Amino acid sequence: MIPKMKNLRVAAPEKYSSEDDIKICDTWITGLLWWYQVHNVTGSTKYSVRVDLCGTTLKGTTSAWYSDEVEAWNWPNGHWVFKDLVCTMYKRFIHEVMAQNAAVKFDHTLYSKLKGALAFYNDLKQYPGHMVISPDKYSMKNKFLKGLPIDMIDHLLKTRWVTTKHTPFKVILKEVKAMECSTQSFNLYKKEQQSCPSNNDMEQSGDNNNTDLPTQTC
């Protein structure tokens, strides 16, 4: 338990029910590990406790599988460790096609001018962990740069001397975000200029107003 917070109670993660979805499965595992951490269910002396508590966060098909495979008295493994339990469940309920889908989604991720470079970067980052073979740093940078608009790529290569091989990813992202901010500022300035009347228009308007004034007579 967290020091000085002994009365803290954190709800268990939402129960996992065998959805063939890597993101749902990963969210469940992350929530379960966080739950263990908060309640101090950690360390080598609590292997069996973690396995037992894991069973309480399952429902449907996974709960039935847990009863048949983990709690069965004649299970050949004899003794379960939490790591082995999670790996076995992953192989049992998450199919290889999901990993293939992650690779396809990674390849089809596109830059959106509305969302910006940071959203594009975050979209790319969510898929490699679910792929059979994750792309290396060079491939990630190459995918990111090639996904940007051509005018942005041209500026990065010719003006900022950015290269896939030598420029760190954080520097590339910083340069792209700076370009976006500059472009947004320019577009905002341009819009304001278009909405404001020019000096000539104001002078012409003033002349017209003067001609409309009544002529005073003595």
Secondary-structure map:
Blueprint: H1 22-38, H2 47-55, H3 61-69, H4 82-93, H5 96-107, H6 117-125, H7 137-146, H8 150-158, H9 169-195, H10 199-211
Distance between the termini: 97 Å
Query: Outline, from the CA principal axes?
Result: elongated
Helix and strand content put the structural class at mainly alpha
Q: What percent of the residues sit in helical stretches (DSSP H or I)?
A: 55-70%
* Rounded radius of gyration (Å): 30 Å
**Can you tell me the residue ranges where pLDDT is under 50 for at least 5 consecutive residues?**
none
Mean pLDDT: 83
- Largest sheet entry: none
Tell me the count of domains. 2
By DSSP (H or I, 4+ residues per run), the number of helices equals 10
Which sequence of SSEs, written as H and E, runs from N to C? HHHHHHHHHH
Residues in β-strands, percent:
under 5%
Count of extended strands: 0
Structure description:
With 218 residues, the protein is mostly helical. The chain folds into two domains: 22-96, no CATH class; 110-195, no CATH class. The protein contains ten helices and no strands. The chain has helices spanning 22-38, 47-55, 61-69, 82-93, 96-107, 117-125, 137-146, 150-158, 169-195, 199-211. The longest helix is centred in the last third of the chain and has 27 residues, at 169-195. The model has no long low-confidence stretch (mean pLDDT 83).
In short:
The chain is mostly helical. The chain is built from ten helices and no strands. It has helices spanning 22-38, 47-55, 61-69, 82-93, 96-107, 117-125, 137-146, 150-158, 169-195, 199-211.
